[in-house]
Each structure stands twice: as C-alpha cells, then as structure tokens.
C-alpha cells in the first residue's frame, strides 16, 4: 500500500489530503485539517457582551459572518429585535463579505488552476497572453476591494468588523458616504462581469482539457437562503434532496437534531451529514435552493447555468461558477441598498442582558453558520460554533475518491492527480480556521 | 509586460496558527504588487516552502503546534529580515486566552490528535523562538501599515496614540457616573466615547490605524498595543495611565474602572501584547515596533 500526501495551498488555512493506493486503486481519501486554536475551550468564562468583538478573530476571511452570527445569538438570548436600519446595514456588511470572498475564491484561489499558474501574481508562467494577464490581476484585486470597502463602510473595522451590536448597529451610513460608495460599486459592476465572463471562458477551456466538470454523484444540499431570492440573514435552514425536492426546513436551534456530527482521529475538523447522506453547502447549494437571484445581471448568468446543467445541478466545478453569479448578485443588491436612506436615527433598541441559551444564524459565503451560546451570570458557559465547511467535509472526501479513481490505475498514477486534488478542494472553498477554530 | 520582475525585492509570508486576517489585509494593500515579488504565501501561491533567496519574511499567526515551530525556525534561517505581523505573532493573540490552567487541561486532554501536528500547551509569540527585526502590531494591521513595514518604518507617519487620529471631541462637562455595558447604549457622533461612558483605551493605544473603530462609534480595544510612551514599561504603568484618563474625564468610581480594565477576559487583553500581563518576557524596544 502506498500513501500519497498532498499539501494544499490557495485555500484558507492549513490542511492536506492523504490518499491510500493499493493495487492501482484508491482505497481511501482523507481531508485533514491540521491546525486548531481552541475557541470553544477558551471562550468559556468570557463576558457574553464581548463575543461580537472576539469571535470575528476565529477567521479573518469569514469574520463578518461570525460578527453578525454572534450578535444574533445574543439577541436571541436577550430577546431583542433590531430595527430595520440595522438589518439593512448588516445585510450590506454580509454582501461586502460575499463580494470579497467570492472574488478571492474565483480570481486568487481558482483562476490560476485554469491557466496552469502557481498564483494570480505569477500568471505569466502560463500559456495565456501576458498583456491580458497584467490587467487581469489588477482588475481582480480592484473588484475584490469593493467588498472590503463595503465591509469598512458598514462594519467600521475592515477585517474584524465592530459596528453590529446587540440590538442594532453603532451608527448609520452618512448620505455622502453612501453615494460615494454607490458610484464606486456601479463603476466596478461591469468590470466584475467582464472578469467573470473571462473566468467562465477559462473554465470551459479547462473542462475541454480535463474532460469533466467533476463527475461525482448527486448529493444533498444545505443552505439558509430564501426560496425565491438569496437571503443572507434568514432564520431558517433548508435541506434539498439530490432530486431537487425540499427534504427539511428548520430553525437553527434544531440543527443538531437534523444533522449528524462526528469527529475523526485524522483531522482537527469534524464532519456532518444528513441522515447518513453526503451533504453539500456553499454556492452551488444556494443556487440549487433558490428560484432566482432577483437581480438582472445575476439572473442572466443563472439562466445560462441552468440551461446548460439543469436544476439541481451537481458537477462540483459548478461551485466555482456559482460563486461568480453570487459576486455579481452582491454588487447588484448592494446598489439597491445603498440607494436607500441609511442615515436616520433608529440605529438600535435598548436591551437588558440576561442568562439563557440562544442561536444566531447567517448564510456565510461557505454556507449556513450557527453560533450557539449558553450564558450564565453574564458569562459564556458554552459556545458552540457550527461551521459550514464541516458540512462539506464528507462531500470533499467523496469527490477526492472520484478524482482518485480517474487518475489512478494499475498502470500508474497520472501526474494530473495532484492538480485534480487542488481543483476538487478549491471547488468547495473550505475554511480551515473556521472548521477547527 | 509581466507581473514578475526578477529584480524586485522578494518577500514571503509564513502563516502560522491564526485567522488569515493579516493575509487578507495584505491583499488589500495592492501597492506592493508592483514593488515586491511575493514568492511564498500559501493562501495565494502554490509553493510549498519559503524559497532560498527570499529577503523579507512576514510571519503571521502564533506558534500553536510543533509544525509551527519547525516551519518558523526553518524559514528565518533563509531570510535577511523577519517582521512579526499582527497580534498573534507578537503576543500569541486571541488564542492566548487559553492560557488558563483549567482551559489548558481540558484542551490538551480533548483536542489533540495523534497523527497530526501536536498542539503545544499554549499559543506562543514568535520571538519566544526566533529573533524579530520589526513588530507590526494590529488585529490586523491596516494595508497602509503593511506598506510601511515593507518599505521601512521611516516612510510611515502616524500619531502617537489613537485618540489623536480619532477626532471625537473630549468634553469637560459630560461626566458619566458608570461605565456602560460593553456595547450598550446609543453612540453620539463627534463626542469622545469616554465622555459617553464607554471603556475606550484609545488614549494610550499606539496610533497608525487611523482610528477605524472609534470613528464609527466602537470603543478602541487596543489591538495595536501600548504607545511608545508605555511599550517599554510594565503593563501596570500603561493600565494606570488609562485609569488616570478615566478619572480625569468621568465620575466613574476608580474601582469600577480598575475591575473592568483588569477583567481577564476583557477583549482589550486579548488583542494586546497579552503576554505583558504576568509571565511575559522582556518588553520589546520601541525602535522595533511600527
């Protein structure tokens, strides 16, 4: 028996893949998360009200989702409902994160795979026209920066936001600031679309070269998005069957009843499943669970995807294309919100801290994120972080097995396998800092 | 035209156990793209070790497991200049909150996995293992600060404390009698957060962040650490200073301020040079801190 170990890069955090090969056949594929800091342990004893500032530090890529989930969990315990303005600004914050994350995944993590480069900053190693590439890297960073700017505007601090507070937000957005941001978003939208078109072309070329969009079997899907259009701040998690029928719909406090969870000896991350079945979260899950995007450009792209692949669609490289559709959606939705008045007095409602148990749900870029806190004497007694990447763990391993079967045979191991491992893992855009905390 | 110009200075980013927020911030500082060659940074480049001819090494994240120790020691041998980036690399960061015996015991008993990098009893700053040429504090440092660290501290201008970059007015006649809950209550624009009863430590936290938290209304939690006036002194001097500011500007009972400042879980401790309290090593020279 031979063990193949693949170090991973262009993903968030530290992880590796180990495959065992015997007689020309892959017999196991493990996705190993190899870091851990221990948030669940050291959050015990923390004053509950400080959580929204501490938990963004779980992950600098997903910090906004943790910030909002934390505030919502405490609002659930303190029984307080934030005003409309706060909800709008929190949505803007989550949209900023969606743009930043999907642009990062598309252009920095996965675009180099499409042209055979080691990074977006080294794209001249590839066969494509260097003239074009220079402008591509710069445009990609600019598109990504729109997300960062939205997070800064709606969240205060640019990586670990501070503006969402229990009961609301610290301040609205001044009209002149909103207008300035609005014109920047409008100016960048066509550039984002062009970049995504180029990405789609590159993806088609890659599919020609490797001969597949990812030939794994259909799966179950999980997301907390809306039925008719995307929703990042919902209160319901839904599960879709491989045939496209809705199998479950439940509030966050029931998530442990609907999903099974197990830990393994080979990873600092756990794994979850639905009735023993492989689950998928992230962009493709949301695309399969929502009827439309509700904004014109994003809906055009979605139509194109649906016409080609049907609905629900299952090939795993479609996760990448769906991220592009969501990036375009987030631009368009941000334009809608920034056109509203975001500078009136009603920023927050008063609350009284109290003890109890509560849940906060947001749809993070990687799927439904739940914070579950128990508060006693004003201090955190237990903090459970239910992380979307964990829902994808079994799906990643199953897809790795499929890739292994494709490139390993009794006559040898095709060198394409290492690239395939990277493509498979990046399609799921796992976040290891979150998965292990 | 190509992005790769072989004559540009070569830098690498070693990611230890952290949240990747520092790396994300660096990606926002896209000015370096034309001035430096990024040769290693697992988040964005598929190269698996720090190449031999790297000049500058940025290290983010704390030392949390034995693989972190190995990677850190190996990388610093290669490079000319080591920059510790962010609160985790400088002090162990938020993970240092696990530095309580009861937490550590539970953690070591339940968390470790035999076939994976082995967890150390506590998250350590990188200068517990290697020499550091420059510290860049912040959780995370802003893109502007990253550019300052790369191009040289002499090129970076900042106020000595966050207060001077905040612009909120301190009032003589607005004296709260108690601290507000950590986030509780309405925030008035343009008026100092201390006048409003928030536990803001911007008065002694080093400047350079441009007050990005306090301007929109959240108290400074001190992620950049103490200013030059306090950084070479014991942490008690620095805490006394915060205490004095509150006593001058408010009617909050001194004990209430003292207790709030010294609460072990208070977030300002987490994001500070956390090892300043208690068992830390010698203070870092202010010449080495941007």
Report what the structure shows:
The complex is a heterodimer of chains A (437) and B (290). Chain A is α+β, with helices and mostly antiparallel strands and 437 residues long. Chain A is built from 14 helices and 16 strands. In chain A, the strands form 6 sheets. Chain A has a 4-stranded mixed sheet. A 3-stranded antiparallel sheet of chain A has the order 1-2-3. In chain A, helix 4 runs antiparallel to helix 5 and helix 12 (393-407) packs antiparallel against helix 13. The longest helix of chain A has 36 residues, at 175-210. The model of chain A has no long low-confidence stretch (mean pLDDT 93). Chain B has 290 residues and is of the alpha/beta class. Helix content of chain B is 29%, strand content 11%. Chain B has helices at 21-28, 66-78, 86-91, 101-111, 143-151, 163-166, 228-231, 235-249, 254-262, 267-271; strands at residues 10-15, 37-40, 56-60, 63-65, 81-85, 119-124, 134-136. A 5-stranded parallel sheet of chain B has the order 2-1-3-5-7, sandwiched between helices. In chain B, strands 4-6 form a two-stranded antiparallel ribbon. The mean pLDDT of chain B is 86. Classes of the chains: A alpha+beta (437), B alpha/beta (290). The interface between A and B is large, with 79 and 71 residues.
């Amino acid at each position: 028996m031979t063990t193949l170990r693949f170090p991973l890069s262009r993903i968030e955090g530290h992880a590796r893949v180990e495959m065992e090969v015997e007689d020309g056949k892959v017999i196991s594929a493990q996705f190993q998360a190899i870091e851990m800091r221990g948030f669940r342990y050291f959050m015990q004893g923390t004053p509950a009200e400080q959580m929204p500032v501490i938990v963004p530090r779980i992950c600098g890529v997903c910090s906004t989702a943790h910030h909002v989930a934390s505030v919502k969990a405490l609002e659930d315990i303190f029984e307080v409902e934030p005003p409309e303005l706060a909800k709008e600004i929190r949505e803007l914050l989550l949209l900023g994160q969606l743009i930043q994350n999907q642009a990062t995944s598309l252009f920095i993590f996965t675009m180099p795979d499409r042209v055979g480069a080691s990074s977006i900053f080294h794209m001249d190693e590839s066969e494509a026209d260097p003239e074009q590439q220079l402008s591509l890297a710069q445009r990609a960073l600019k598109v990504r920066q729109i997300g960062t700017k939205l997070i800064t505007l709606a969240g205060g601090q640019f990586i670990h936001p501070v503006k969402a507070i229990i009961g609301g937000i610290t301040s609205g957005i001044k009209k002149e600031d909103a207008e300035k941001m609005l014109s920047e978003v409008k100016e960048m939208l066509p550039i984002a679309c062009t970049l995504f078109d180029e990405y789609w072309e590159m993806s088609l070329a890659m599919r020609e070269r490797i001969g597949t969009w990812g030939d794994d079997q259909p799966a179950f899907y999980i997301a907390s998005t809306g039925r008719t259009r995307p929703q990042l701040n919902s209160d319901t998690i839904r599960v879709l069957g491989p045939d496209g029928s809705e199998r479950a719909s439940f509030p966050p406090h029931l998530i442990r009843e609907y999903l099974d969870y197990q830990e393994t000896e080979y990873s600092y991350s756990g794994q979850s499943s639905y009735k023993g079945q492989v689950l998928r979260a992230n962009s493709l899950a949301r695309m399969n669970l929502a009827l439309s995007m509700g904004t014109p450009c994003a809906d055009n792209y979605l139509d194109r995807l649906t016409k080609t692949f049907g609905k629900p669609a299952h090939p795993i490289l479609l996760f990448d294309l769906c991220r592009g559709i969501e990036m375009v959606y987030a631009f368009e939705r941000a334009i809608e919100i920034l056109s509203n008045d975001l500078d009136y007095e009603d920023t927050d409602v008063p609350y009284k801290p109290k003890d109890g148990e509560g849940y906060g749900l947001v749809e993070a870029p990687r799927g439904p994120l739940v914070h579950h806190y128990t508060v006693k004497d004003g201090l955190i007694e237990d903090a459970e972080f239910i992380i979307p990447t964990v829902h994808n763990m079994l799906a990643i391993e199953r897809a790795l097995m499929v890739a292994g079967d494709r490139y390993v045979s009794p006559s040898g191991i095709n060198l394409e396998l290492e690239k395939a491992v990277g493509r498979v893992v990046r399609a799921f855009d796992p976040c290891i800092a979150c998965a292990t905390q | 035209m190509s992005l790769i110009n072989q004559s540009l200075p070569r830098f690498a980013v070693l990611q230890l156990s952290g949240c990747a927020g520092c790396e994300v911030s660096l990606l926002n500082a896209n000015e370096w793209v034309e001035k430096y060659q990024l040769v290693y940074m697992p988040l964005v480049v598929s190269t698996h070790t720090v190449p031999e001819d790297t000049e500058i090494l940025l290290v983010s994240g704390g030392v949390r497991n034995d693989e972190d120790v190995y990677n850190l020691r190996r990388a610093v041998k290669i490079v000319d200049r080591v920059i510790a980036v962010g609160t985790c690399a400088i002090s162990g960061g938020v993970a240092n909150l696990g530095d309580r015996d009861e937490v550590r015991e539970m953690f070591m008993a339940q968390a470790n996995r035999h076939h994976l990098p082995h967890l150390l009893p506590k998250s350590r700053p990188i200068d517990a293992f290697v020499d550091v040429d420059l510290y860049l504090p912040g959780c995370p440092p802003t893109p502007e600060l990253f550019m300052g660290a790369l191009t040289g501290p002499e090129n970076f201008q900042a106020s000595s404390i966050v207060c001077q970059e905040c612009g909120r007015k301190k009032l003589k006649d607005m004296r709260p009698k108690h601290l507000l809950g950590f986030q509780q209550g309405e925030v008035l624009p343009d008026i100092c957060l201390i006048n409003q009863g928030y536990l803001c430590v911007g008065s002694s936290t080093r400047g350079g962040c441009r007050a990005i938290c306090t301007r929109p209304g959240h108290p400074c939690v001190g992620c950049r650490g103490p200013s030059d006036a306090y950084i070479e002194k014991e942490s008690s001097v620095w805490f006394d200073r915060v205490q004095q500011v509150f006593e001058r500007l408010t009617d909050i009972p001194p004990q209430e301020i003292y207790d709030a400042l010294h609460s072990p879980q208070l977030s300002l401790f987490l994001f500070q040079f956390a090892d300043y309290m208690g068992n830390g090593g010698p203070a870092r020279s202010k010449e080495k801190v941007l």
